[in-house]
Amino acid sequence: MFWKKLKVLGAGSYGTVSLAAPMDGSSTFTAVKSAEAKDSSSLSMEGGILDALKGSPYVVQCFGEDVSVENGKPTYNLLLEYAAVGTLHDLVDIYSKSKTMLEESEVAYYSFQLLTGISHVHRKGFIHCDLKPSNILVFPTIDHEYDSIVDVRLKLADFGLSLRAVENETHTYWDRGSKKCRHNRGTLLYASPESIACGIHGKAVDIWALGCIVVEMITGRRLWSCCEGIDDLDFKITHEQPVIPSNVSNICKDFLAKCFEKDYNWRWTADMLLTHPFIKSATSSSKYHPKDHGLMISNRVIINPFSQYRRSWVSKQHLFSTCFQVPSNDNFGIFPAENAQSSKLACN
Predict the structure, then answer these.
(1) What domains can you pick out in the chain, each with its CATH number?
(2) What's the pTM?
């Protein structure tokens, strides 16, 4: 089966993300991250990480990879699950624009999902390093009989900056925007004090970022949105205590205090936070219990649309090719998961 990229959904330092569908006209859609093959090392590494993380219902599913010749250039494609609704950032923005906010019980339920995904990532030996609402995908479950949303599944995505979990390892990075060497890896608004001050990236950086996300879900605003610039933001994160919303319960305040512990050695882990009363209150409620809505089907592994053999990972060639001349395999590099399988050339 040959595929076609229908439109560009977004772009970043890695390349582009496109919506793709089979050329036979079926209604199957996927998201495809793409970069020129010569610049695809980061994207290929992300594919390897997602392959290692497969099996969690709270981490976006990666179906495999493809190398095609597109507009005369060898292009590396990462084949991903498509979230038609968008991201958690989009969801929070919808509530904010309607001048309503998520209920605390909803925030707790979404926090449970995020923590379950983070726990899985950490157990597999990785640190996400760039958790934020725009890197969390939203997958609603529809009750077609009543045409209503009965559950929302959140999935961690965008592992392009992820690291192997080596506790207390220090890092320094060149920031192209500010043209300075920086310690933190990821988006500054969600960075932890130790990552900014010392370049330390342990599992605790993901927990600090989770706290920032929870505050954003509650208030509709980013935690440090009032800062006047990068230097001001650096100073406040490293020297000031985050302001915990006053209009929440005491157990929610305590949960956030555990996330925002300045000393990363004492910050609670994902598994510890899953036992916190704030999370337990959400998972014990029938309102947010998947079994009560008949939603356990959403935990099943999605059938790989790129594999007729139902394999969880595939390596392909020319799914999206737009030319008739097929270069030699030597021009494509090496797939991270397994050797490429040849297929016929698709022409638009």
Answers:
(1) 3-81 (3.30.200.20), 86-284 (1.10.510.10)
(2) 0.85
